[in-house]
């Protein structure tokens, strides 16, 4: 899942070398914290949050195949 999130994020931003992804497990959920450069936050979130929502849907689909629940936090 982390590799999938990294792949998607790198194709959305202008500075893919500044992406970091941290993960932790809490209350049975896997929490991913996606950190991107300040100028790339808008690109990852998208107009009205549509891009972020789409990424979350895809990430949940990947997690569901593995029988897990996932949360994505985007940090700039």
Question: Can you tell me about this structure?
Answer:
- With 76 residues, the protein is α+β, with helices and mostly antiparallel strands.
- It has a single domain, classed as GMP Synthetase, Chain A, domain 3.
- 42% of the residues lie in helices and 28% in strands.
- The protein contains 3 helices and 3 strands, in the order αββααβ.
- A 3-stranded mixed sheet has the order 1-2-3.
- The chain is globular, with a radius of gyration of 12 Å.
C-alpha-based Rg, rounded: 12 Å
Contiguous runs where pLDDT drops below 50 for at least 5 residues: none
Give the total of beta strands. Answer: 3
Strand order of the largest sheet: 1-2-3
**Architecture, CATH level 2?**
2-Layer Sandwich
Taken together, the total number of domains comes to 1
CATH class: Alpha Beta
Q: What pattern of helices and strands is seen along the backbone?
A: HEEHHE
Counting helices, strands and paired strands, the structural category is alpha+beta
Total number of helices: 3
Average pLDDT metric? 94
CATH superfamily: K homology (KH) domain
Helix content: 40-55%
Strand fraction equals 25-35%
Biggest β-sheet strands, sense, barrel: 3 strands, mixed
The gross shape turns out to be globular
Distance between the termini: 21 Å
CATH fold-level label: GMP Synthetase, Chain A, domain 3
Overview features:
76 residues, alpha+beta, GMP Synthetase, Chain A, domain 3, 3-stranded mixed sheet, 42% helix
Q: In terms of topology, how is this protein built?
A:
Elements lengths: L1 H11 L7 E7 L2 E7 L5 H5 L4 H16 L3 E7 L1
Parallel strand pairs: 2-3
Antiparallel strand pairs: 1-2
């Amino acid at each position: 899942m982390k590799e999938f999130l990294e792949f998607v994020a790198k194709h959305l931003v202008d500075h893919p070398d500044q992406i970091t992804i941290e993960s932790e497990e809490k209350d049975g959920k896997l929490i991913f914290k996606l950190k991107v450069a300040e100028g790339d936050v808008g690109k990852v979130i998208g107009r009205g949050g549509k891009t972020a929502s789409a990424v979350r849907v895809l990430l949940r689909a990947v997690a569901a195949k593995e029988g897990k629940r996932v949360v994505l936090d985007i940090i700039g």
